[in-house]
Amino acid sequence: TNLSAIKFYNFEYGKFADVDMILSRTGYTGETGFEFYFRGDFNTARKVWDSIMEAGKEFGIRPFGLEAQFVLRLEKGHIIIGQETEQRVNLLDLGLGFLWDRRDKASKKIGAPALAFTEGQSGRLKLVGFRMNNPSKTPGDGSVVHEGNEVVGFVCTSRFSPTLRQSIGMALVRDDLAKKGKTLHIYQNDSNKPLRYTATVVPMPFYDPEGKRVKS
Fold first, then answer.
1. Do 187 and 90 share a structural domain?
2. In this predicted structure, what is the pLDDT of residue 107?
3. Domain range for residue 114?
4. How many other CB atoms are there within 10 angstroms of residue 91's CB atom?
């Protein structure tokens, strides 16, 4: 199978390492990538893995772990259900309103009334991206966002980005703070001493906003 012929968000049935599989031009890292889907046991998976590593040897291929994937998906603003979501938010709060097809009659039956009801509500939590004002400081996930003594949100995810050379993150904050340039005051209840940070709301994704790499 010629992987370069598979367009972004398309797939083909093919064979790799003599294993029948679905080869999908998708991924979760924001980079040019593919996902392989196949039936088999551990030995089959090991055979495919070893073949990938052998084929990529001349290009300097290296495996990477979940934490690296976590940082890459953060740079692209890809959410994890349960990490960037909670029971008070919906598609509109997460910036995913485009998934609600208002022209689809079926969409009026399940969930649509709730979305319509919350669309104009004020004071809702909204997902935002932020850059730390001190690039080397990284608040812990779950740190509180506050205005004075009032809790107005929390940090969902924050990591240091080697690509951007600074700490970035995503937070759910009260809607009046979900605007570019707004300052977020972050409090972390560390076991040794309380930690306080400031960050600035910025657009997402942080990296390759036009998606040139993932679509190349």
1. yes
2. 60
3. 72-202
4. 16
